[in-house]
Design goal:
Elements lengths: L1 H24 L38 E4 L12 E3 L14 E2 L6 E3 L5 E7 L10 E3 L1 E7 L4 E9 L6 E9 L10 E6 L6 E7 L11 E7 L9 E9 L6 E7 L2 E7 L10 E9 L12 E13 L6 H9 L9
Parallel strand pairs: 3-6
Antiparallel strand pairs: 1-17, 2-7, 4-5, 5-6, 5-17, 7-16, 8-13, 8-17, 9-10, 9-16, 10-11, 11-12, 13-14, 14-15
Length: 323
């Protein structure tokens, strides 16, 4: 019967499948092999590790002899002196009043120093319409040679003039004792002015001012910029050399002028001026303007190359223009 024939065929197929399975289990056909265990590369021998600091072949990092702490648990006055008031426009017809108030200078929880200029033109108290901070470091350069490095975010706007600069510790005679400007920009133009001053703004002192104006990419848009200034001076003669860098690029050099105070006597100033002659009479609009100091330190030699970098860059970078 057809049913019996179909059943017989079905049984024959089952038997064939069973025999095929036996062949596979007994190795009659190649079975699927699991992948071999992953072969990891052998450990790198210690002798082939890259040289670490202090080992041959790795340039040693310059020694830091002072670093600003920016500790929010410590008063700013521990490391910085606040200059106060308007001081008759600070010689430039500036409009700001410097204060020691926490709203004008403070440390952040993540260890940044912020100087804040505040424009409140409608405040009934004239002394509070334009307030800012002017800080002077208690630390001096204190060495005949070394390097000062800082990373700053500078406020760039009309009527705003932030500065990172050096003067001798007080008392001093300005300008004959010397002034060094490392970072300053005004009216939001995104141009930094590296300067050396040791004369008055008179025709006979024209040669006593050296300036290089450097457009700095991103500075006007809030990019942090790294500034470095290095000095090397013979304590016996007072002669020496100065070099300025922005983001690792040398921008200016100058010999140390005769008769100025020793570089070891200089201290650091940070401030945000408002209005005045340099800003060509522009007045900042209502609001706040922050200078953020991310890092500041003094080194025994220039970073990323030491005195070899100093000598190399001295050989090609330009001297400043006269005013």
């Amino acid at each position: 019967m057809p049913f019996k024939n179909t059943l017989a065929q079905f049984k024959a197929q089952i038997k064939d499948l069973q025999q095929e399975g036996q062949k596979i289990l007994s190795g009659g056909q190649q079975r699927h092999q699991p992948p071999p265990p992953q072969q990891y590369p052998p450990a790198i021998p210690q002798a082939t590790h890259p040289n670490q600091q202090g080992q041959p072949g790795f340039p040693p990092q310059p020694t830091i002899y002072w670093q600003a702490r920016f500790d929010p648990g410590t008063p700013i006055s521990a490391e910085w002196e606040h200059k106060l008031g308007n001081n008759n426009g600070w010689g430039n017809n500036e409009i700001e009043h410097y204060t020691a108030e926490a709203e004008n200078s403070f440390y952040t929880p993540n260890h940044l120093l912020v100087l804040r200029a505040i424009a409140s033109p409608n405040n009934p108290d004239p002394a509070k319409r334009y307030t800012s901070a002017r800080l002077v470091s208690r630390q001096r350069l204190s060495r005949p040679q070394g390097s000062l490095v800082a990373t700053l975010t500078l406020p760039c706007a009309g009527g705003i003039w932030p500065a990172f600069w050096l003067l001798p510790f007080e008392p001093f005679a300005w300008p004959t004792d010397g002034e060094v400007d490392i970072a300053e920009t005004w009216n939001g133009d995104g141009v930094n002015h590296s300067c050396l001053h040791w004369g008055f703004y008179t025709p006979q002192d024209t040669m006593k001012h050296r300036v290089v104006a450097t457009p700095v990419h991103g500075m006007a848009n809030g990019r942090p910029v790294r500034f470095e200034f290095a000095w090397a001076q013979d304590p016996a003669t007072g002669q020496g050399r100065l070099v300025w860098w922005i983001d690792g690029q040398a921008v200016m050099k100058a010999p140390i002028p005769s008769g100025t105070r020793p570089m070891a006597d200089f201290v650091v100033l940070l401030n945000i001026a408002m209005g005045g002659n340099v800003c060509a009479g522009q007045i900042p609009g209502e609001g706040t303007y922050d200078m953020v100091v991310h890092e500041m330190k003094m080194l025994e030699e220039p970073e990323a190359g030491g005195w070899a970098k100093f000598d190399r860059d001295w050989g090609w970078v330009r001297e400043g223009d006269t005013i």
